[in-house]
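hi!! sorry for the late reply, been swamped w classes. u asked for the two structures so here they r. pasted raw, havent cleaned anything up. first the sequence of the first protein and right below it the tokens
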Amino acid sequence: MPDAPPRAPSRVRAAPRTTHRLFIGGAFPRAASGRTFDVHGADGAFLARAALAAGRDARDAVVAARGAFPAWSGMSGYDRGQALYRVAEVMEEHRAQFAGQVRRATGGSADAAYAEVDAAVDRWTWYAGWADKITQVRGTVNPVAGPFGTVSLPDPVGVTAVLAPQDSALLGLVSVLAPAIVSGNTAVLVASERHPLLAVALAEALAAAELPAGVVNVLTGEVAEIAPWLAAHQDVNAIDLAGAPGALADDLAVAAAGTLKRVVRFPAADWTTEPGLERMFATLETKTIWHPLGT
């Protein structure tokens, strides 16, 4: 007797809902409070849950970034460039997955999504190529009167807080993060509230590329809740306000001044144009070395 056909399910199956975590010190912890928030696509459909970071998570991220700074800044420019190139390779390998994320987040066409991913990979590669050229372009040999030689060299400022822009799913994110770390800074990235899953996907690519733990740390949640902790934190040396609205950016700049932070604040950018060098140079300081000339 032939087998009976399978019975139709009596109810619609509910797929498990993904909850994405933070990225701190090379690991993927939950938010310290255990809080999460729902992420929706451009069409309003539920996509996933993401960790809702707060002050304690920001402090943990700063500790991780500070711990990674000596080794990352002490690495040769060539080796830092190779590390960034590897991230670009991983993004290229997962091009379809990134494009799917962009399309769900923005509601655009498949062609537009792939174009943004390609531009983001190219942007990451562009900055990787600068890693071993920054000193030659930014450094100088200074003419002085006397038996001395002096050179001025660019140095990374330290830990940089980066607020990802709200108006770009992936390209803007890469355009503010890559220039912060290519010169030897480490970063605490606050993801866009509109497109947090792209920051999560990038964090997974950073981990897959084996970027040293703590060089980039990713926090998802509300910018207005997380950013003030970073702006006032005494162990954060610079803050990029790309993702802060005007009034909040003003308040963060005032808070940053209390700890003598470098504040990076440029006019609204068209992320599709050539990025230039200003954002990369904004988180550098100049060190001048004097040395007596012997016979």
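now the second protein. again sequence first, tokens right under
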Amino acid sequence: MNSTSPFHLSTVCCGLVFVLAVLSQSVMACTRAVYLGPEQTVITVRSMDWASDIGSNLWFFPRDMQRDGACGPDSIKWTSKYGSVVSTAFDAATADGMNEKGLVTSLLYLAESQYPQPSENETRKPICISVWAQYVLDQYATVAEAVEAIRKEPFYVVPVMSPDGHAGTVHLAISDPTGDSAIFEYVDGKLVIHHGREFQVMTNSPVYDQQLALNAYWEQIGGTVMLPGTNRAADRFARASFYIKAIPQTANMEKAIASCFGVIRNASVPLGITTPGQPNISSTRWRTVSDHKNLRYFFESTLSPSVFWINVGELDFDSEATVKKLTVSDGTIYSGNAAKNFVATPAFEFLPAEATGPTD
């Protein structure tokens, strides 16, 4: 479905009531936004917020890798068409990344996710959420191509507990060099897709339709008058939505990248911050800034004094290339183009899940 209908005041009020109802839930926090500048200047930013250190590292994957959905022998299987550079969670899941065509995937927490239950005559193949973002990077060059294919539901997503014991409930955002975006959520067991350049921002709870309604309220007030300042998902959504459009619209990449870093830092949560009554609203662990135009992937750890990047467009993703790892979880500090610091390493294993059996 394309979410394009206008939002009325009653919808906004209902959304506000819903947010008040979910504030007591334990949620993990992340923010994602897409900058649409002149001369095809498109930049995707995201923060990774989590309750504990998730041991993230960067990985280089060549083309033609044999993959499966990490749900046992009946999992969906594929051969990767495109190489990619990704940021992991626990070195057991792809959380974020860019492929060689400039497609970017961002996996964010969504407590309200409810995934499909397969039927007795199920024809779809299972895929674990740990592999979901990687599947998209492996298979598709554009958002439109991904939406067309995934709308047919060749697989159903299976959740899994994270290694540190949190429920694996997520939604997925993708963006490409044209500025196109799509948001994939599972609501009440059904796949919901929001597709279009207008879907620039995503955070966490509530579900995306209600986030849009809440943001419509803040757009009526105007960001120069007042913006919500807490670390709650709805507040971060409002701030990111305002600032990603308010920053200078420029084709000067140095200035555009700097402005986009400012947006995602504004939506970040300082390390060590806790919220009374909401112990799992989480500190920002790292941020990425993806320059779609120049195929450059920036990474900033909150524990590092410097930003580094990978020139994805200059990498050799030939099928004969070796899987490589750039270790950041040990505190190593990089700056500038860190591609030379990748080290050949056996590929990590994606966190597996048991596929849900058929239901009557």
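hope this helps!! also noticed smth abt the second:
The radius of gyration is 19 Å.
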